[in-house]
Amino acid sequence: MGATTYPFTEGGYTLYSNANCPYAQRALRAFNAANVPYTVEEIDLANKPSWYPLVNPRGKVPALRTPDGTILIESLVIAEYVADQFPESGLLPSDPVARAQLRLFIEKFGSEFTPDYYRALTAADTSDQDKFKDSLAAAIKGISAELEIQWKRESGRGGPFWAGSKWTYAEVILASFVGLLPVLNHYRGFVVPETREFAAFNRWRQAILEHPEFLRAKPDEDALIKTYKKFVPDA
Ligand SMILES: N[C@@H](CCC(=O)N[C@@H](CS)C(=O)NCC(=O)O)C(=O)O
């Protein structure tokens, strides 16, 4: 018989997570940035507990159980819920135009950086790997240009984060993927060039890597490299 119940913290937030999952880190970082307490149920993705389908029938992390028993899934949905539920955290800008520009940036990152990152990592053929690494570099150039534009706007004046000097929603959502670059360097020798066109990205990345909110949910680099090995056909 299947499980009929699952573990959660009565009256609190329970996050079903995995330390090496970049999507789960979004949820952790949203709670951390909003300064809202939660407990973590660490899910072993290679050997999921029999009760996990009761929490998320899709079987993925992150998932969230709220104090009233509502279950939310999907990292962007969970992070936006936290920002909306705790507006005093200032995670999302209140100005609709600033919100729209932030959403566009996250969309651009998700549709350009993330797919090329995974394609470069998982391609078996070296000429495909090179093609996707070039494409990723072009995506990063575009992200860099977008950051330069944002840092001239009132909502991002001066950087080095999307919202200026403050770590907010853009970093909550994207820091884990920026933090995955060492994995691609390890398996594919990919480095972000130090030239002018990449300068804003490199400044943003450095500020992310040094921020306490990044370090608080940062996976161990060796563990990350090991986790990603299964996606690398020639490793
Ligand atoms: N679109 C999902 C993606 C989550 C996801 O892919 N999680 C992976 C780990 S990083 C997972 O749970 N994989 C387990 C599985 O698919 O069985 C989100 O944003 O939350």
UniProtKB/TrEMBL annotation:
Gene3D superfamilies from the UniProt entry: 1.20.1050.10, Glutaredoxin (3.40.30.10)
Start and end residues of each GST N-terminal domain: 11-90
GST C-terminal domain: residues covered: 95-231
Domain of life: Eukaryota
Coiled coil start-end: none
Classification via PROSITE patterns: GST_CTER, GST_NTER
Gene Ontology terms: cellular component: cytoplasm
PANTHER family: GLUTATHIONE S-TRANSFERASE OMEGA, PTHR43968
Protein name, entry field: Glutathione S-transferase
